[in-house]
């Protein structure tokens, strides 16, 4: 089906790619500023947070709120002020020139003055065959988000970088015991983190080991690891497996159109402006020190201000 | 209102599945975040394949017998069924609508 965007050659002020908290906050502020705005989302509103059963660190919800409901409410709120939404996958973009073009898989092309990239970053999966189905049901990717659910329990965590060890330390403060699984005999993390892990009495390092499988028969039972040097397997009884083996920013459709850092995140400062005029990066996709729902939402608001400024300056130039 | 996925339960299963028209069934549950996330895309699949494919969804808590019949272990699982009622293929948690389209195309050539 070809949507009206292509049929009538209409031009949006802002096309937002991605309907998570950053995308819909941008949509809310852009729509309220009178900009013609559409959000292109390939699944459902909320992005990654829809996989979180309960979000307890987004201000204003003292009982917590499930990620799916929060995403849905963010969409409804933005649409109340005139933002549009389309369920489609963005396949490629043309970002040069005053009018930019966003190509989609099945909803035609969108012409726009500004593009806000809000496609987020996904946790890198381990590659277990049943992993996607177990996400948030035994396999977790955010210790800060989900660790509290395992207070006083035993959990396993796989990874060896700074974030992994930081997550292990966080979990060690909440949980009775943490198995820290790493495939090498030394962590990749900085010495500071490695020393802190060594001092934590309830973290048991499981080095030279990889996760073979998880036992979920009748509920999450534990993790089977294999020692890569001896080929011996060991079962670690635990209530969850936290995976902290890096993140993958969703930038494939950009095909190098904007500058990214060494890890693939879009280079943009607090203004959310990228290397391309009229293109903004918000939320987890942007270079930033902390990736949370609240910081994503803040980016969205900021982007609207600089999108308005860009449009006004473009018009002034004629 | 666009066509949405058809709710399949013990009352309409016999009538709709294996009676000449191929089908895809989404085994889901209300408590499954992946299931909820893919639901809008699946409704779009229902609209796109209207008349060519029965696009159904089975609530595994409401109708566990149907889930058992297809040995469903993980949610969401999508099962492709030919017009005679034979299972053609299964997929767990497809990434988006494009992945479901590809799954249907590879299995049934639609």
CATH topology of the largest domain in chain A: FAD/NAD(P)-binding domain
Cα distance spanning the termini of chain B: 24 Å
The proportion of residues forming helix of chain B, as a percent range, comes to 25-40%
Oligomer: heterodimer
Large-scale geometry of chain B:
globular
- Average pLDDT of chain B, rounded to a whole number, is 91
- Protein chains sharing the most extensive interface: A-B, 22 and 20 residues
Distance between the termini of chain A: 34 Å
**In percent, how much strand structure appears in the residues of chain A?**
25-35%
Average of per-residue pLDDT values of chain A: 92
CATH architecture of the largest domain in chain A: 3-Layer(bba) Sandwich
The CATH superfamily of the largest domain in chain A turns out to be FAD/NAD(P)-binding domain
The number of helical runs of chain A is: 8
The CATH homologous superfamily name of chain B equals Glutaredoxin
Please describe the topology of this protein:
The complex is a heterodimer of chains A (318) and B (110).
Chain A: H1 4-7, E1 11-17, H2 21-32, E2 37-41, H3 67-80, E3 84-87, E4 90-94, E5 100-104, E6 109-117, E7 121-123, H4 131-134, E8 139-140, H5 143-146, E9 154-158, H6 162-174, E10 177-181, H7 191-199, E11 203-206, E12 209-215, E13 222-227, E14 233-237, E15 241-243, E16 247-249, E17 279-281, H8 293-317
Parallel strand pairs in A: 1-2, 1-6, 2-3, 6-17, 8-15, 9-10, 9-15, 10-11
Antiparallel strand pairs in A: 4-5, 5-6, 7-16, 12-13, 13-14
Helix pairs in contact in A: 2-3, 2-8, 6-7
Chain B: E1 6-7, H1 13-16, E2 23-28, H2 33-48, E3 54-59, H3 64-69, E4 77-81, E5 87-92, H4 97-108
Parallel strand pairs in B: 1-3, 2-3
Antiparallel strand pairs in B: 2-4, 4-5
Summarize the structure.
The complex is a heterodimer of chains A (318) and B (110). Chain A has 318 residues and is α/β, with parallel strands linked by helices. Chain A is 27% helix and 25% strand.
């Amino acid at each position: 089906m070809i949507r009206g965007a292509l049929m009538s050659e209409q031009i949006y002020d802002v096309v937002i790619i991605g309907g998570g908290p950053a995308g819909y906050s941008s949509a809310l502020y852009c729509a309220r500023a009178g900009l013609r705005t559409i959000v292109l989302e390939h699944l459902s509103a909320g992005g990654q947070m829809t996989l979180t059963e309960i979000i307890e660190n987004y201000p204003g919800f003292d009982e917590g709120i499930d990620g799916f409901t929060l995403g849905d409410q963010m969409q409804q709120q933005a649409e109340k002020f005139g933002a549009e939404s389309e369920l489609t996958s963005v396949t490629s973009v043309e970002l040069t020139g005053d009018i930019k073009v966003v190509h989609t898989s099945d909803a035609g092309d969108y012409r726009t003055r500004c593009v806000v990239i809000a496609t987020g970053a996904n946790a890198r999966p381990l590659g277990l065959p049943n992993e996607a189905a177990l996400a948030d049901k035994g396999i977790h990717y955010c210790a800060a988000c989900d660790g509290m659910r395992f207070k006083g329990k035993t959990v396993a965590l796989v990874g060896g970088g700074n974030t992994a060890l930081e997550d292990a330390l966080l979990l060690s403060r909440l949980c009775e015991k943490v198995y820290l699984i790493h495939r090498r005999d030394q962590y990749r993390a900085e010495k500071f983190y490695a020393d802190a892990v060594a001092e934590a009495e309830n973290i048991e390092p499981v080095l030279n080991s990889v996760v073979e499988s998880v036992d979920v028969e009748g509920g999450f039972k534990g993790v089977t690891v294999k020692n890569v040097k001896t080929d011996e397997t060991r079962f670690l009884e635990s209530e969850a497996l936290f995976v902290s083996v890096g993140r993958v920013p969703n930038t494939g459709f950009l095909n190098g159109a904007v500058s990214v850092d060494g890890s693939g995140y879009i280079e943009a400062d607090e203004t959310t402006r990228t290397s391309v005029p009229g293109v903004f990066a918000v939320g987890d996709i942007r270079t930033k020190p902390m990736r949370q729902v609240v910081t994503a939402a803040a980016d969205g608001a900021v982007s609207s201000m600089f999108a308005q400024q860009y449009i006004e300056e473009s018009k002034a130039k004629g | 209102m666009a066509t949405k996925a058809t709710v399949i339960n013990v009352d309409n299963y016999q009538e709709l599945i294996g009676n000449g028209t191929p089908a895809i069934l989404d085994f889901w549950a209300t408590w499954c975040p992946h299931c909820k996330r893919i639901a809008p895309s699946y409704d779009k699949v229902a609209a796109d394949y209207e008349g060519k494919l029965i696009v159904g969804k089975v609530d595994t808590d409401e109708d566990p017998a149907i889930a058992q019949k297809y040995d469903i272990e993980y949610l969401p699982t999508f099962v492709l069924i030919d017009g005679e009622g034979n299972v053609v293929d299964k997929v767990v948690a497809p990434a988006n609508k494009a992945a479901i389209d590809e799954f249907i195309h590879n299995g049934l050539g639609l």
